[in-house]
Fold this sequence. Notes:
It is a single chain. This protein is α/β, with parallel strands linked by helices. The chain folds into 2 domains: 3-129 and 323-336, NAD(P)-binding Rossmann-like Domain (Rossmann fold), CATH 3.40.50; 133-160 and 196-315, Dihydrodipicolinate Reductase, domain 2. It contains 10 helices and 14 strands. The strands form 3 sheets. It has a 6-stranded parallel β-sheet, sandwiched between helices. Helix 1 (16-27) links the parallel strand 1 (7-11) and strand 2. Helix 1 (16-27) packs across helix 10. The protein is globular.
Amino acid sequence: MSNSAVSLALVGATGVVGAKIIKLLEKKSFPLARFIPLGHSTVGNHISFNGEKYVVQSLESFQPTTVNLIIFAAGSAAAHAHARAFVDAGAYVIDLSSHFRYEDDVPLVIPEINGHLLDQLEKPSLIANPNCSTAQLLMALKPIHDALNIELMNVATYQAVSGTGKAALEELHNQTYFTDSPQSPSVYPKQIAFNVIPQCDVFLDNNFTKEEMKLTWETHKILDPKIFVQATCARVPVFNGHSEAVFFKVSRGTSRDNIISILSGAEGVKVIDNPDELEYPTPVECANDTEDVFVGRIRVQELGGDTWVSLWIVADNVYGKGAALNAVQIAERLLQSKKL
Length: 340
């Protein structure tokens, strides 16, 4: 099917991520013959795309045979209810929720790392978008792993509230600016303003949270099942942009200059690392509708005969690799491989 015949339905078009997907599709001049915004509680609302007004249609009554590409940006419940049926109807489906990520028949894709999985698809399929923290982490680790073989890593994430959605953004805003009568926590288990909450998602039987285990499961599925991963995920009072401190052991000796050289040549990665000038990435400076994954605070140490590398990683978790950008790049790869 030619590029001019691509018809796209976007589930969750009015949400935080849906709005960024629309912005990216416009920026990249993604070739569409038809665009259908879908929702549930937002049916009847109007959105703008490429200068035209569209009315949000009902997901429940939508006929998937009218399009060949559907992006779900509306959470696990909507994906669970409709995604596989839409594939059976003949559409490629990209799902940004965690619902299908760990199923063997569903490719979990970061195009720069394992985009070849999309090229190998022989029929309309369900494709999972990775967790926001995983995506930016693996973008930085992949070129280093290729060169030096990462054996084990410990990562701590500092995650912005935008990853939880509109209600979380409002909760942080209200707790921060209405201090005379601060809003009680409703989205998070504790106050998020002026605080750090060492919990993202629910606790599992092993005392890790589900978000922490996602980093393990998805690193194994996307990059290498042999890498040992230990993670701690915290929610911080930042509106947008996830940060990560990662420490990992490599099989071969290396230097700070070599790590900088490896990362500087990696697609989608930008190094900001000049301690003398206090240059390093932060969410405020680097997570405002940005596409790159930013890396700084690069250090290499020899500890007990082993070589350890330390990185600080920042990315836009909504517009960037963590969500909207990666989904749009998957769609672009499907176009390039003539699946649409």
